[in-house]
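CATEGORY: protein folding

GOAL: derive structure tokens
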Amino acid sequence: MGFITAIKVKVGDHVTKGQLLVTISNDDIKAKRAQTDAMVTEAEAAFNSAKKDQDRFNNLYKQQSASAKELDNINLQYNSAKSRLEAAKQMRNEVSAMLSYAQLTAPFSGIVSQKMMDAGSMASPGMPILTIEQAGVLQVSASVPENNIQQLQLGANATVQIQSADKTFQSTISQINPSSQFTGGQFIVKIKVPEGAQKGLYAGMYANVSIASAITPKSSTDAVLVPVSSIVRKDQLTGLYTVSGNNTALLRWVRLGKTVGDQVEVKTGLAKTESFIASAEGKLYNGAPIKLK
């Protein structure tokens, strides 16, 4: 933790692996480093003195000029001095490790996509300062509802359409997240973007994904209908708020079908037995506490 003294890059800059990005004030750590250096110097002097005493008494003991008790005491002093020296060196290593955190370097080559803090801000562990996107490594992240996840398998073919870039390409599923604990019943599926299709694509673009099913889905004559007013629209995505186990609002993306009067069909993303929020007195957002009436 410390104040940011300088941010060496800005959004859009290309950075290389190991490049210095951010410096954080480290005067207090430098002071501790000086203290540990002094402790190591003092411990080394005590150790060298104890080593000389040990060598001297070993010779005296061999000449029967020193007793076994005196030699034991000298050996004890030597081992104690050696332990204090090792402890002082480990303290210096700890401070050196802390000092290295005062300079943040790029873990890989890429492009700075976000800058969340400025010089003078307080940097704290766990709080992001910059976001770097690794160039040349893109993938599509899609949400699949729990009633469809069993139909998918790794390596399944997928068709990806990105309207904003006027691009359509074929790919395969590279990863299926086995848990939907924090995504409201939606399983995150990752799809590779072939190297030849990456030109003109940028992180954050919306994609429509069609995945070939490995299992024939169960047929159902009962359509899931929800009020049109409950639908949330963001760019090309549509969703609605569901109720989490903690009685908080949780936005879930869904795919819509036909509109019948003031209701619309939810084709995927919401099971018929699941609860959703049709209307609310206040503004809804992810994590908003709700009280059913």
